């Protein structure tokens, strides 16, 4: 493999999932718009992509989740109403959060059926800019000073091309919930070379404890490898299978990010994220200090 300075310009946001674990809350509100206090999960992901210098954002959504598109775009009428009422600070916050069509490129594509993460990424192929692409799973909230994607892209663009996946070490009895890296040799700083990945292996058969979480920087060949890929685990087109297929051709490494990861696809993870985020803001500290369990029997 030759050294390359391939620039990562596109980020893909798979947001088509129906969020069944959060029903009834997600009956009318997409899970990506559920807030950690007052900031939706999707906004954390968008901000992370912006900080990493992403030029084009592609949202792979579902026809029932039109609220996501409304959220992403600017709402001029709402902001005008807020300003008329003297609420300039709130209007400024909304303007800054929304996509600015003069400065940012955004596309929405639909994934009508839940055919897997690999299929969702493939849906974005037509709109991806040339070169490697990033994939961000909004319900994997990773909080760090620099930003996980910024860390990954900096490492990726300064090394050999290929696939890079964010990894973290998990307990042996937890590996069956993740895609797991097949390492090659010792880690070099935050990077760990690998020969492949295994999707949700049995605990005793897992090739390592390096679990893949929701950030990827993938060589542009990922779309070719996803084309015609047969359904894998769960009858879905698995992104893990396509990455493993391409590992021998373009290379693969895990990236051990420096931030804290919260699995906001689960209720417990969402609660942890909310409490951790509240703990960073002075106005909520008295609430956290006084927090007592409600006198309600556990379900």
From TrEMBL:
Organism: Alloyangia pacifica
GO molecular function, one term: UTP:glucose-1-phosphate uridylyltransferase activity
InterPro entries (alphabetical): GalU_uridylyltTrfase_bac/arc, NTP_transferase_dom, Nucleotide-diphossugar_trans
The EC number(s) this enzyme carries: 2.7.7.9
Segments forming domain Nucleotidyl transferase: 16-227
Superkingdom: Bacteria
Pfam families: NTP_transferase (PF00483)
PANTHER family, A to Z: UTP--GLUCOSE-1-PHOSPHATE URIDYLYLTRANSFERASE
Protein known as: UTP--glucose-1-phosphate uridylyltransferase
Signal sequence extent: none
Alphabetized Gene3D superfamilies for the sequence: Spore Coat Polysaccharide Biosynthesis Protein SpsA, Chain A
Gene Ontology annotations of biological process type: UDP-alpha-D-glucose metabolic process
Family assignment from sequence similarity: Belongs to the UDPGP type 2 family.
Reaction equations catalysed: alpha-D-glucose 1-phosphate + UTP + H(+) = UDP-alpha-D-glucose + diphosphate
Keywords recorded for this protein, A-Z: Nucleotidyltransferase, Transferase
């Amino acid at each position: 493999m030759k050294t390359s300075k391939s620039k990562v310009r596109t980020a893909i946001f798979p947001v088509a999932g129906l969020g069944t674990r959060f029903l009834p809350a997600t009956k009318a509100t997409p899970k990506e718009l559920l807030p950690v206090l007052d900031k939706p999960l999707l906004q954390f992901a968008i901000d992370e992509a912006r900080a990493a210098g992403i030029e084009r954002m592609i949202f792979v959504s579902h026809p029932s989740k039109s609220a996501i598109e409304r959220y992403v775009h600017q709402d001029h009428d709402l902001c005008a109403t807020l300003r008329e009422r003297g609420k300039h600070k709130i209007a400024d916050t909304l303007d800054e959060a929304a996509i600015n069509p003069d400065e940012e490129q955004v596309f929405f594509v639909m994934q009508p059926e839940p055919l897997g993460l690999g299929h969702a990424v493939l849906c974005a192929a037509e709109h991806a800019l040339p070169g490697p692409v990033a994939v961000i799973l909004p319900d994997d909230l990773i909080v760090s000073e620099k930003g996980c994607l910024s860390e990954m892209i900096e490492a990726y663009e300064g090394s050999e091309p290929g696939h890079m996946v964010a990894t973290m070490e998990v307990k042996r009895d937890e590996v069956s919930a993740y895609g797991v890296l097949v390492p090659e040799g010792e880690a070099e700083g935050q990077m760990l070379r690998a020969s492949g990945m295994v999707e949700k292996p049995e605990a005793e058969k897992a090739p390592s404890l390096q679990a893949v979480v929701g950030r990827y920087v993938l060589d542009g060949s990922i779309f070719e490898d996803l084309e015609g890929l047969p359904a894998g685990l769960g009858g879905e087109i698995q992104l893990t299978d396509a990455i493993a297929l391409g590992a021998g051709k373009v290379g693969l490494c895990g990236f051990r990010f420096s931030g804290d990861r919260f699995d906001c696809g689960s209720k417990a993870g969402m609660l942890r994220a909310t409490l951790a985020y509240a703990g960073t803001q002075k106005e909520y500290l008295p609430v956290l200090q006084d927090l007592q369990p409600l006198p309600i029997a556990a379900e």
